[in-house]
Amino acid sequence: MYDENNVFAKIIRGELPSKKIYENEYAMSFHNINPVAEIHALIIPKGPYKNIHDFLFNAPTEAIAGFWDAYRETANILGLSGDYNIAANTGSGPFFTQSIMHFHLHLLGGKRLKDEIEL
Question: What pairing do the DSSP bridges indicate for beta strands 37-45 and 84-87?
Answer without folding.
Answer: unpaired
